[in-house]
Amino acid sequence: MGLGGISIWQLLIILAIVVMLFGTKRLRSLGSDLGSAVKGFRSSMQDEGENEGHKKADEGEEPETSDAAKNKSDV
């Protein structure tokens, strides 16, 4: 038994049918397009996280500083 009652042989047959229908070139281009979309999504999520950190600093909230830097400014 494989995933949800589907055996490995049934999955291999489905894979063979998909390859015959679409061809390897089309599947390869589809995979690369999907990969680039995921990569773009991840980079935009990281950029959004960085921008939120900059927004907090721009809104007047003090960025976190170390104790040594705080003590130096107090002297």
What does this structure look like?
The chain is elongated, with a radius of gyration of 26 Å. The chain is built from 3 helices and no strands. With 75 residues, the chain is an all-alpha fold. It is 77% helix and 0% strand.
Structural class: mainly alpha
What integer value in Å does the Rg equal? 26 Å
Averaged pLDDT, please? Answer: 79
Biggest beta sheet attributes: none
Helix percent reads over 70%
Order of secondary-structure elements = HHH
Please give the count of helices: 3
Number of strands: 0
Q: CA-to-CA gap between the ends?
A: 71 Å
Low-confidence sequence ranges: none
Descriptive tags:
mainly alpha; 77% helix
Write the SSE topology:
Elements: H1 8-22, H2 24-58, H3 67-74
Sum this structure up briefly.
This protein is mostly helical. Helices cover 77% and strands 0% of the residues.
